[in-house]
From TrEMBL:
It comes from the Eukaryota. Residues 9-62 form the Isopenicillin N synthase-like Fe(2+) 2OG dioxygenase domain. It comes from Tetrapyrgos nigripes. InterPro entries: IPNS-like_FE2OG_OXY, IPNS-like_sf. Gene3D superfamilies: B-lactam Antibiotic, Isopenicillin N Synthase, Chain (2.60.120.330). It holds the Pfam family 2OG-FeII_Oxy. Transmembrane segments: none annotated. This is Isopenicillin N synthase-like Fe(2+) 2OG dioxygenase domain-containing protein.
Length: 146
């Protein structure tokens, strides 16, 4: 799970809304922006997907200003295998969307190291969606929105 504390009212963070439009995250004093993250998506069988987001240049009237953000990433213990909690009554009712089979599921350590070592080193390929690039990390498709 990722948590961002936006310390100043300078834009730059956008989320992809269900209607397919990118929307600015508005600054709210003393507020946190929380993204469930990809590990949560593994553990909850897709019930809580990570927020599709991007960080871009601020609006033109704010580009001359400095911005500051603080980011914190909470993760499961390294030895936790990232498989859905199949015993969940909610998942039993709504179904499980698997990112990979239980046998192929990475541990938190394996996933964390795969994501961090790939960052900036992967050759991203064009995705099926407009302005989306993709890479494969440990057999799981990871999308990057541009």
């Amino acid at each position: 799970m990722g948590v961002s504390f936006l310390c100043c009212p300078i834009g730059g963070l956008q989320i992809l809304s269900p209607d397919g439009k990118w929307r600015w995250i508005k600054h709210i004093d003393n507020a946190l922006v929380i993204n469930a993250g990809d590990a949560m998506e593994f553990l909850c069988g897709g019930f809580y997907p990570p927020t599709r987001h991007r960080v871009i240049q601020p609006p033109s009237d704010q580009r001359h200003l400095s911005r500051l953000g603080t980011f914190y990433f909470a993760m499961a213990d390294d030895d936790v295998k990232l498989v859905p909690h199949e015993e969940s009554p909610v998942l039993q009712r709504v179904g499980i969307k698997r990112l990979c089979s239980n046998d192929e599921a990475p541990t938190m350590e394996h996933w964390r190291k795969g994501r961090t070592t790939a960052y900036g080193n992967s050759v991203l390929r064009p995705g099926k969606e407009i302005n989306v690039e993709e890479e494969n990390i440990h057999g799981v498709l990871v999308k990057h929105w541009n």
